Amino acid sequence: MKKSLFIKIVIAVIICTSIGGIGAIATQSSISDWYITINKPSFNPPNWIFGPVWTVLYIMMGVAVALVWHKGFYHKWVQTALYHFGFQLILNAMWSILFFGMRQPGWALIEILILFVLVLLTIKWFKVVDKRAAYLLIPYACWIAFATILNFEIWRLN
Q: Which of 37, 61, 63, 102 has a CA 20 to 30 Å removed from the CA of 122?
């Protein structure tokens, strides 16, 4: 691996996990009081699974974005792909703030639907630039799809 790609991976993983940290802070504000009191569907995973899953996903996202970035920011397709990624990353953090921080599952549901569409568009643009990067985002898209269903059920039950 080229040194420049490795440096980009490190930077991108730090950025992605830092954004994830913002979401984790919002989550921690409600996980031990509000979240345990609301009705959840039978398929709700145990709380301990979310941290490891998100950590792996943020690392994969960081590697994916670094692969795209490494193709050269001067290229129009790279810029488009990175803009999509940046917007979806902001929405990713905003979901935790809406759902856990503000305790608004309804607004969070609307936001995660938009996030899911944006993740799919990001995958599309990543595929144009680097297919490996697009494939690295597929588990993330699947997790967002699951989170959307979970969010809907929590909203419906409460």
A: 102
| Measured distance CA(68)–CA(135) in Å, rounded | 12
Which one, of 47, 51, 52, 49, lies nearest residue 32 by Cα?
Answer: 47
How much of the chain, in percent, has pLDDT values that exceed 90?
89
Say how far apart CA 44 and CA 130 lie, in whole Å: 34
Angle at 144 between CA 141 and CA 148, to 5 degrees: 140
Model confidence pTM above 0.90: yes
Domains of the chain: 3-157 (1.20.1260.100)
d(Cα 61, Cα 45) in Å, to the nearest integer? 22
